[in-house]
Design goal:
By secondary structure, the protein is mostly helical. It has 6 helices and no strands.
């Protein structure tokens, strides 16, 4: 199990705060955080996610987010750092997930898989998560919600936002 670990300074130029995200990224981050909040409160996250995703006209995206986070909850290599809704900053794990979502939407599944596998998920977990991210990417694209591809470094083989 190889890990690619880059110094923290390598991703310092990527958004660290919600205020610096595109609306499409904010939507995903809000969905991740709402899902976790609902689960912690013992609620089904789907009604909350459905309402959130209905705003931009993609209520079915709630299922993709739910499947993604259930895969992560079952297969993550460590406790994934998803912050509370009121936190203005992004965790490194949230950055990874946004990056993987952008790569999946851009039709770059190998890059998305590599980003997920870089410390976050094992190979099989990344495969299952990738399917949800690709579905989410298609739904968001159909609503005109494009995710920006962000890179930490110059190298083509270097996973983004790490």
């Amino acid at each position: 199990m190889g890990h690619i670990r880059l110094p923290d300074a390598s991703y310092a130029s990527t958004p660290q705060a919600m205020a610096d995200l595109w609306p499409s990224e904010t939507l995903i981050l809000t969905a991740l955080r709402d899902w976790l909040d609902a689960v912690r409160q013992g609620e089904s996250p789907l009604p909350r996610l459905g309402r959130l995703m209905a705003g931009p006209g993609i209520p079915d995206a709630a299922l993709s987010i739910d499947r993604l986070l259930r895969v992560i909850a079952r297969s993550a290599r460590w406790q994934v750092d998803i912050r509370c809704a009121c936190c203005p900053y992004l965790s490194r794990d949230e950055q990874r997930l946004l990056c993987a979502a952008a790569e999946a939407q851009a039709g770059l599944p190998a890059r998305a898989r590599a980003t997920l596998q870089t410390g976050l998920l094992p190979r099989q977990g990344a495969e299952f998560a990738l399917a949800s991210l690709e579905g989410l990417g298609r739904l968001m694209h159909s609503a005109g919600l494009i995710l920006p591809r962000r890179f930490a470094g110059q190298g083509a083989d270097q996973p983004a936002w790490l």
